[in-house]
Amino acid sequence: MKKLKDIKWKELILKNFGLKIIAVILAIVIWIVIVNVDNPSERKTISGIEVELLNEESVEESGYIYQVEDGATVSVVVKAPKEIVDELSASDFYAYADLSEASVEHKKARIHIQCLKEELVDSITIVNQKSDYVTLSIDTEISKEFSVDTEITGTPAKGYVMGNYLASPTSIKVSGASGVINSIKNVKIVYSIDNMNSDVEDLVSPIFYDDSGKEIDVSNLKLSRNTIKLSIEIFPSKTIPINYTVAGTAAEGFRCTSLIANTEEITIAAPGNILREIESVTIPDGILDITDLKEDKVFEVELYELLPSYVKIVKPSATFTLTAKVSKYIDMTVALNTGDINMKGTSDSYEYEIKAQDIAVTINGLESNVKSISKSELAPSINLSGKTEGTHTIKIEFASSDDYVVSGSHYVTVEIKNKEVEPPTEETTTSVEETT
Fold this sequence. Notes:
Distance between the termini: 200 Å
Largest sheet: 11 strands, mixed
Number of strands: 27
């Protein structure tokens, strides 16, 4: 037996060296196969890993302000044994970016990711990282004051109406990146009162809009306040009549032909205890006075002045208007022809002829009515009932009307003649002679 010192180590190692290398490789492969059979490796995408920003002050100390445009969260694809992969989540990883790497010219900072479970670090491989950088929007910081508008939407419950509303404060100061601040064109609060039946006291967050009406994300801006206090009155309502009296008469030679009111009732709203006491609104005597009017006149009365101060007029209008239409009496002459006169009560035994003469009829009435009178509306006629042969003077009659009066009496001369009897024809005479 050879002693240990007699063994030729070099010969021992190099003898069949290739086979030995192959054996080692096969052993490793077999070990990997065995391990993967028992606990195979798998890939998994881990999403939503929040990226922590380090050294933020390095940007602010340079007199700038930033916003994250991309890379606030990151996703990775990891590879690890199945039993490990199944348990992994976003909370097992830590991602960060050092903002000292970013500048106005280079607005990026590399994202670094590591596993928080030290015991698993050697078993996990990050195969792919979906985002390599945090991308920033770096801008100068400015402050600006904006007025806050109020928009009330919706309709209160049936029988209720909205009273006054008050938003406080009416302005808000905003600080942040100049690019974002300068894009703000309108700030308002929006509140719905749909189906409400009681007063509102609420805090409402303002909404910021650009010039196209698109909402602007202001989560990275500094606001002087985050909410606006809004108070809205919601009142019960009811409809009440308007009582009024028109005094006086129009001037001599004129007449008030119509009185037209814009409404006879209004709908009002007020706190319940006030509303219950109001049954109508009365316009005081003397306000609607048409004495000596010679032309149309519109009376206007502000109904708010006749109601308690806390009453709101809902519809149709807070102003009552009454239009007095006034027309003048005038004389107008209408020239008639004999052919315009209708003959009534005639007989087939007579022939009738109205002797030609000038007939001028004077009509007195309201200017608005008389100017449009036609001959056919006057309907001139004479009654010849019982009149026999001879010459007669007959009074002309006219249609009665409330719009005008025919001044005086008017007559025409009518000649009445017997109709001539036609002599017998020759055929008739011969027939009589033959009979004789």
